[in-house]
Amino acid sequence: MTKIPHRLYLTEEQMPKQWYNLRADMKEQPDPMLNPATFQPATEEELYPVFCEKLAHQEMDGATRYVDIPEEIQEFYKMYRPSPLIRAYNLEKALDTPAKIYYKFEGNNTSGSHKLNSAIAQAYYAKEQGLKGLTTETGAGQWGTALAEACAYYHLPLTVYMVKCSYEQKPFRKAIIETFDADIVPSPSMTTNAGRAILAEHPDTSGSLGCAISEAVEKAVSTPGYKYVLGSVLNQVLLHQSVIGLESKTAMEILGEYPDIVIGCAGGGSNLGGLIAPFMQDKLTGKADPRIVAVEPASCPSLTRGRYAYDYCDTGKVTPLARMYTLGCGFIPSANHAGGLRYHGMSPILSKLYHDGYMEAVSVEQTKVFEAAIMFAKQETILPAPESAHAIRAAVDEALKCKESGEAKTILFGLTGTGYFDMNAYSSYLAGSMSDYIPTDEELAVGFAGLPKIPGIQE
Ligand SMILES: *Cc1c(COP(=O)(O)O)cnc(C)c1O
Questions:
Q1: Is pLDDT of 1 > 70?
Q2: Is 244 in the pocket of ligand 1 (CB under 6 A)?
């Protein structure tokens, strides 16, 4: 038998020409988004003031199974895709496991993450609609960077509201985002009513994702020709990210492999939803039955300890409501949490699949995550993003179980990105000063108490 190569890159011919829409194969659809003013199911047209029309259409379209990837986007993808499918030979050896471990590495572009896959699609549709510019928010900075790259490609002005504490901790994110000609504003700022109101009340606040979303949405709706875009959670983002899973599945087919377990980290759910898409299709259609595992931080446990309920997608409560696993839109993870994945909710598609028993979820503590990150870096030579290291942790744990049982399972996990901007967190782990924080049930109850009351739907 010939040895399976270390890295497999598809040829341009083998790269996907269509995205795959998982909803088309779901037995039951996720519950509809609700208009925050009326609590009635939102229509596509109601999304137009905030979103590009084609993207609003993708958001609402649960029926079209395959969506052509516009040729311009395919060409853009070729600059940094295919991403490699890598066999973790060294990690397997270090773990002394009979398991075969594969990972799909999405960090090989300047944003350092999978986010560019959707950023270029969103910028393309914005340009096609003749928009004058876009706004967005960014937490850790990967999404802001990815969207700045995509907007620079289409000469589309972009304003990024970056959570202030993250802006101050990661000064080089500003430099990269400005390299691609985007404006970056630490949030809360004096440039919007939302920002001014928060600053008047809390002049020393270090900001939050929810506040940055409110500023970005306000700026978009108050600037003619501008729209707002989001880098995770939404159905359209999972659609674009399906390129990860489609490439992975083709590559595994070429190798004659099929995963027994597919693992991904889960913040808003976009990389996980993209990676698992064609494998979940096999599961939904009865062709195969891989285990699918979402990994989240113990400090922000939306799937493992959240409620499946209607909630706002932002803290400012300006967005439509989605039925999802949520900790409540007011939930803010403990300040010592360094590992990303801080979103209070979860993709409605993944939430529905999890609720219906098609997926498992585990939560992991951040010191265990960094332990796995450093072991992985030394074996595989890639410095992983802390977010990605959640998936590494779970893959390592599964491989160790195989060592115990002697089973040679095939594990596939998503390595979403690199961690060069997270060296403060690495330093703190290496210095032994990183700690874990797991919220108590009482603390989570505060977030649940704030869930919206919707007459007839959620009392
Ligand atoms: C944004 C990000 C994530 C989490 O977002 P999802 O939408 O859950 O995929 C994970 N890893 C990296 C590197 C990221 O930048």
A1: no
A2: no
